[in-house]
User: Fold these one by one.
Assistant:
Number 1:
Amino acid sequence: MATVDSLNTAISQKEQASKKNYVFEEMSEVERSANYDQKQKLCLNIGGVLPIRNHLGGWSSAFLLLANQGLATLAFFGVSVNLVLFLTRVLGQDNASAANNVSKWTGTVYLCSLVGAFLSDSYWGRYLTCAIFQVILVLGLVIVSLSSWLMLVKPVGCGDGILDCNPTTPIGNAIFYSGIYLVALGYGGHQPTLATFGSDQFDENNPKQKSSKAAFFCYFYFALNVGSLFSNTILVYYEDTGRWTLGFWVSAGAAVVALASFLLGSSCYRYIKPFGNPLPRVAQVFVAAIKKCKLPQVDSDKLYEVEGSESVIKGSRKILHTDEFGFLDKAAIMTEEENFGKRSAWNLCTITQVEEAKCIIRMFPIWLCTIIYSVVFTQMASLFVEQGAVMNKSLGKFNLPAASMSAFDICSVLLCTGIYQRILVPLAGRLSGNPKGITELQRMGAGIIIGMLAMIAAGVTEIERLKRVIPGQQSSSLSIFCQVPQYVLVGASEVFMYVGQLEFFNSQAPDGIKSFGSSLCMASISIGNFVSSMLVNMVMQITAKGDKPGWIPEDLNEGHMDKFYFLIACLSAIDFVIYIFCAKWYKCGNPDEDNSITQSNKEEDQGGDDVLNKV
């Protein structure tokens, strides 16, 4: 009788599905037997319901998010790419101060990625987090545009390197800075969350979609550079010729279009529910381990884990036990008192909780090794621009903006992404047997080496520039196109380092902190900017003593910026040696795939029909 009732229930639900094509999250017992895994149950549409036939997500949604990334990046770089020149020409700051302020601001941008990742993983979910931070981005760009239009760029057309601007007021400066820091908050919180939201559109339990998910991060960085290409060529030209306000308004318009396109696809996205605040979960592991530090170690099969397929972290897969950091395993040892049901989350943790904490600890040294590379990357937005500004920028009758040279970096990224994806991966895959070609850790190591070569190229360019200084002028006769090698090398290194980072941290981060994993890439850039600012200050304090102008003075012709570049190259070499040891030490965490009820391709295609087959 119960079987007949179950059959009738399944048939009724199939009829409803054919009309509405969805079922509510609260599913019947028969439906739960259809082998939907717990993570798939959290993949909802915007109405908070779960489709039987998975028409949500996939490349159609991913392409919309890639377009959003391109437009948002266009908007962001419309402000950031020429910011160092805006600070010197319009706000009247000296070179060192402007470079430091840009480094601090850029550091804040990427530090805000941690805020966005935390809110996304814990409370808001990825869709809402992306939407809110894009609104903040639009607001910041409007404030920047209004402040430059009404208060700062006076007279109109000033700040072009010829016509000086009127002295700015404290109120105008304050409004401008509030605007650019809102831009930092908006873009910083949006980008890593968008990367994770895009990867959510693919089901990693489906082999075809799993490969698409790996490719998505390549295309994500590709879209980022396509968006910045417009900013670094067209917008930078208008800004460099004194039309700053026009450039800022175009950036604001692009951000509005990005937000509108994002909201337009709301009904097509695949949504993952937030997993709750990870901070207490991780803290509970350390507190429980300290409380039980005097207990003897036990075998892994005697450690505590909840029964069933789901972990204690709602929607997260269980993680298999690993032997590293054995002292944390004590948090999962059950005492005699806890065996009889008297348990506290601050005294007893599951294996999955312990392994989540271990994953964070394991990723930390790898992340630290990426910071020096980010110092290399930072120079492209500050010292590279200042170096180019005092070189021969003429191209026939056309005067090339110094910041537009970053277009060679972008073109290098676009070209190297294609070469890597279409040539290097298949070739390396055949030689190594790894379908990814080379591992993410190997890619990141290659990025560090190429970044070091970029700093050497920049130092050599600076030596040649100083040899060709025009007497009585601040510029040099050396063509700005001599900067091309350093920009191209930085671009090539980005493909290996930042795409590798996105893949590595997103794949290695447990289910409950995926956005946090993506944000680590941007957090590395953030810390790199602050380290770069600290290095500039330290170098100037040490080298600018007495009558000496220092390595990076107001007049770069009196300094030795080449030595600063070589210093960063030396730091990169040391960093690479440390990275090799950390990469060899690192061991990947293992989600418990056997305990996760997976859905086969056939089940996904058949949808509701499979419920009847199971009955």
Number 2:
Amino acid sequence: MSGIKTPGGNAAFHNFVNDFAHISDPNERRRLALEKIDNAPFGWYHVRAIIVAGIGFFTDAYDIFAINIVVTMLGYVYFHNSGSKLPTNSDTALKVATSGGTVVGQLFFGWLADVIGRKRIYGIELIIIIVGTLGQALSGPSQAIDIIGVLTFWRVIMGIGIGGDYPLSSIITSEFATTKWRGAIMGAVFANQGWGQLAAAIVALCTTAGFKNTLKAANTAAMCANNCQTAIDQMWRITIGFGAVPACIALYYRLTIPETPRYTFDVARELEKGAADIQTYISGAYGNAPSEEIKALRDAEAHPVELDVPKASWKDFWGHFSQWKYGSILIGTAGSWLLLDIAFYGLGLNNSTILAAIGYAGQPNVYTNIYNVCVGNLILICAGGIPGYWFSVATLDIIGRRTLQIAGFFILTILFCIIGFAYHKISGHGLLALYVLSQLFLNWGPNTTTFIIPGECYPTRYRSTAHGISAASGKIGAIIAQTAIAPLRTRGCPGGTCWLNHVMEIFALFMLIGFLISFLVPETKRETLEHICERLHDETNIARRNTESSEERKSDGEGKVAQV
């Protein structure tokens, strides 16, 4: 039975009833609806999704990069009597706190998005990021606790929000993206990390320039007092607090997105709602489809047919991933991300050496020192980081995710071996070139692909959970790099970096293992998510079966008419 067409509808509020009311079989309606979103041409709604989903990664990278500059400022303000430099333990605590909170957020929000849906919690993680960021900017010491303790607390809170953004933004983008350019769309979301790093350096540079006259008078750290300390105290708060601005702008759009149709179809099992939500997304409107439109679709269904999709449960989850052919994929995505992040965060250990090579080493004058830190890091970002992200965007759907990841790990193994074994023979400019190449192939390779592949290669009912597990493994790698490996660079020479060459050799070994484990990762280039799940997880090919069943029903109907 077909539904009665209703009047109305425009470019902003599409008439969902007229598109789907004539389909009586819900399975067929599901197939046609997903086909529409998979084959949709690249449009402004994809650009909107990239911006809204990418804000979290912008904020993530902004904060991680900004704290590297802020610790220099904190030294002048709160550790004036200790050489104006943060103690090593305090420096490490501030940087690791975010990673620790991120692990919690990735696991918790990843699981929660599969249990109650993507829409219900998308935006909550951004609120947590905003609260954590503002909490840092407004922090101050007291008699009971010092500034480092307060900042560490707020950075853990912010990290939980950042962690939640990883699985949510990945799978929401994946489940809404057109098949042909899904890799580029997801890559563009992740590439906002590069813009976040760039923004952090620019904001810090602008605040430094704004207080130039006050800072310039302090020719040494010991001379930075009163007005100088007040100026730097304002500078680091502005630098940190600005990270909440883009998050506030994107908050409304996150809170009003529709539920992803694939979750609605396959997990929540609301056929009509999922079909209508697709139209909401493509039409450019926000929020879920109006209830009266969904009711009209349900009223048009004369003979309900049960949707045949496996149901999610803990028993099914453990039963599924305990089998090697499925569990090996999770080992591949989680293991490669862990190994990648060890080197990604560890590569920053070379920053002081690299900055010295390009003439931006630390200076006694307070203004010149902070200025050099900002400009030097700005140069490093533009030289290798940002180009690498966008080279990935351009090639993911052509070369393929798996190929880029394997090639990236292989090239990084070679580069880290050269840096490690020839460290004392390479000039400063040679080391700079190797550093830029390493940043380029980190981002034009495994740093991007380890984010994208887990968002594509798992069944809808466990996609968020599995992505959260993979992402959390990566942050555990970051913690290992910051707490276990970083201290090795000063082994035998406290305050120096005499063991840094051996640390780079260790990273080369991790890259080699990452190269090998990447062969467990599947290729997902230009396949629909349903076809990927069928190929990798033996999921029922619902689309094909429903097409066949629809054709059989049509043939039966034509046969009966012929008999009459």
Number 3:
Amino acid sequence: MPPPPPPSQGAMATGAANHPLPCSVGRPKGTNQRRRPASLSVRASSDANTVTLLDYGAGNVRSVRNAIRHLGFNIRDVRSPEDILAADRLVFPGVGAFGSAMDVLNRTGMADALREYIRRDRPFLGICLGLQLLFDSSEENGPVSGLGVIPGVVRRFDSSEGLIVPHIGWNALQITKDTQLLQGADGHHVYFVHSYHALPSDANRDWISSTCNYGESFISSISMGNIEAVQFHPEKSGATGLSIFEKFLSPNSSGAKAPAHRKASKLAKRVIACLDVRSNDNGDLVVTKGDQYDVRDHSSSKEVRNLGKPVELASQYYIDGADEVSFLNITGFRAFPLGDLPMLEVLRCASEKVFVPLTVGGGIRDFTDGSGRYYSSLEVASEYFRSGADKISIGSDAVFAAEAYLQTGVKTGKSSLEQISRVYGNQAVVVSIDPRRVYVKSPDEVQFRTVKVSSKGPLGEEYAWYQCTVSGGRDSRPIGAYELAKAVEELGAGEILLNCIDCDGQGGGFDIDLIKMVSDAVTIPVIASSGAGSVEHFSEVFEKTNASAALAAGIFHRKEVPILAVKEHLVDSGVEVRMQ
């Protein structure tokens, strides 16, 4: 299935991608084939403050736009092959699937224009898939031929020996070539999110400017003349990434980056700040926090807990060093036309200030708005991506899809999880699991995977299974967390956000039994959630489980435990983390 069209052409277009609106988030609004095509001959433009951006409509390039504008540059969008050849500087933030991208490029004539632009050695920066497409071919749903600029084949990471795939998170670069683009990046972590990679070889070694190690050494950046490309996401790599961007956009600038507190050496464990967003009783969007999923005060007022404004808090957490920010929309704005969903405005505004990954969850499903207009879950996800989300989180819909899959053994391809994963790649899809602990005396009592618990149950039970829920924990389902995690991995999830209703808001620590069971069972990253109350809880979950990240909310909102304190404690505990 090809990716959705660019915002200017799609039926879902809001215009926000090219014409940002002022941010005002609060009350909801109401409703080596280097051939030269003979026909392509265009002179380059001369606007020194303008960058040409090739956005073919798949995934979130809003953050790239925001990074470019943050650095003081204007953007000219590619609408035709001639626009590519007229560019002074071209940024190609490829996202999504290799085959879908090449299909668009070939169909529009832009593939030939890209080859010619690169042959002329014009300033070029490819990002993520924008690097992979330069190679001969990819094994992703293929083989599929690429642009053929660099020798080599793009292959999937091998998870057969337990390697977690996708490669998601902040990893270190091994710089192999002295290039201006990467000056100052040595010793810093940069953000990766991908399942496919290109390997170094004798045929392409002259192109390589850095490598990264994840199971094996892969190409993390290339440089040849004015042609640059990176596998990581500079627009999501904080100050280090912005510095890299600035060096490409302003070659004469220093783009200085302060020395790292601690030299990056490998993939870091991530610390994620989560913001539960809903409208309060006055209709204002606020960040709140539940106590076992109850977000109302236990006082006589019973008001929704108000812990701050979404964009302001997200911006502060970025400054404080959060590795990702996750928004959970816990209000169903079902009466609004999709383009007016309040969370879209939150994302648009946050992505202008937050240059680390943004995830949004809640409401990713088919729905019909108040005017009777039907929207598919893929359309909803597409609009979230265009508005600034890097990943979307699916909850209840994924549970129902997993139940159907386990009953029939058939992947229909029709669930929101399967559709979004197919179009945007599994690295863009998180499944949120909300289980509740159920104690049993013996594993034989239930058909679901049980664990021997660290602390016995109220009647002395030594075992428990974890029953999954939907609708914000209100409804229990006949499926366990283990079974759900295995099923959604098969259906295309790229990451699991593992909550625990029993631990939510209690501050007693993560449910280690649950997290170890699930993180040992799957080969995709697991984010530990629910229960953090101290810095020690973070080191405990990383030392005792295979969790790739740990998420917290209330302790950050209430300023009980600063993000920096968590990271300093993890460093002291010997855990690799990103330090600003």
Number 4:
Amino acid sequence: MVGTGGPVATFSVWDYVVFAGIILLAAGVGLFQAFRGRKEASSEEFLLGGRQMTAVPVAMSLTASFMSGITVIGTPAESYRFGSAFWIFGFAYAIMSAISAELFVPLFYRLGVTSAYEYLELRFSRPIRIIGTSMYIVQTLISYYSVTGLDLWGVLVATGVVCIIYCTLGGLKAVIWTDVLQMVVMLAGFVAVIARGAVLQGGLTKIWEDAGEGGRLQAFDFDPDPLKRHTFWSIVVGGSIMWAAIYAINQSQVQRYISCKTLGHAKMSLYVNMVGLWITVTLAVFSGLTMYSIYKNCDPLSNGDVATPDQLFPYLVMDILADFPGIPGLFVAAAYSGTLSTVSSSINALVAVTVEDFILPVYKDLTQKQVSWMNMGLSVFFGGVCIGMAGVASLMGSVLQAALSIFGMISGPLLGLYLLGMFFRTSNSIGGLVGMIIGLVLTLWVGIGGQIYPPTAEKTNPLPLTTAGCNNTIGQNYTTITPWTSPVTLTPDYRPPLADTWYSLSYVYFSLLGVLTTIVSGLLVSVITGGCKQDKMNSELFVRKNDLTCFSWCNKSKESDITEKPSANICMGADNPGFKEDDVMSKDVEKNTRL
């Protein structure tokens, strides 16, 4: 009987057929885009879709990249165990969208960049650009094997190979259109679970009532305590900065919206993506509430039916949907589609930053054909690395939770560096570098400390669950559709004084800590080292008033957005005596000719 514990069914033939069909359909969409665009083999076509994409597909791609494998299976488990507070991230998504669309999109369009980290060289220095790019590469590889949540070698390799093929042949355009299909599949997976749960429980109203009785609807906690895991303030304030660090400067996201044909389309893609994020988080949270309504009297985790929280949602799927052949296959395809989207966007972004930030500045005489072959070769290389990371993930256990937190720790100081350069004309490269290092040290310190000495239940506030209604013996351990992996945190017997204060800082505040530390310390060091010594600064490297007043209805053409590209960073010349403005001008001419 559903909701009473015990083993559940396994995959049927039709489930495998549906799963394979959806993955092959995704590959077909990518390959279609690849062959349709073969007549244009330029680097700009491969990396940016020829800068001719429109708002809606880009927005759906942005949302799909958010919905990783862990998002599909982790968010419902979060809602099941901790309640609906996660839904408040919807406010953070709105603030993040405005920050990204109104501050960063005009800047990147005005500069005509391919890599988001080109800005760091224009504003500060080339060493800082290389450091920023390196941080992104490390962050991306770490986040990949942290967000997959999957441990089926055969399927991972198969989907990885499919992803490599369409990324290599089709570039960003193939990635975006494949993401559109994958987003639809992922949302369909959530809808299938909610619809079946409503039928079993007697309607959506019953699910809502059960969630209320179980304390799952008490989302708005206005306690200002920064040590509590999720409060209204931590999610809205800290969450906004955390997601801004991902959408505003992360190459995987930046590369999508700068591929739009106009500035207006780029801005609109972020606002449409905001709506997509609202729909996604609402369905994911309600899926968790549906799971609680079904298992309110028999928690599968406490009963030993599953080993980790990340197995809860797959267990639910097989428990309530096994009688409908093919539907469980749809759910697994949804989870793997999230992983596929993550991998494809990572591959394309890694290729872009490697070529633009490391190779082309050194080998300036490469022909367009050589660059195109290099793009495809690097796609294969990074695809192989991602598959290898999936293998490492299945062997590293508790290290994964630390790795996932490190992803957030790196983003904050890097965002602080951008904001330092965009808003404060007195900041120089020395201040920027020192500020970012100090911010990174602090976020790594608090983050790693929190992994070694996890916060107590008083701060994380898990809600009560019971096994009173279970019909099976506690302690049995059954598997579901796949051995989903999840990190297990070991709690040391000894807790130092910092464990219940500094190390208990909510993970949502890590990025905010990094941003503030980088800006404040960067400004202080810049002032101490003389600031920017020039009388005149290039205004195109800073946020302008009309960037804010123009809002999303600006509809400049691509050409008008990037023709007035700054030739040099004046302040960078002060910190680098050997710098010549003509050198940067010649680099811009070479790049525009090549593209």
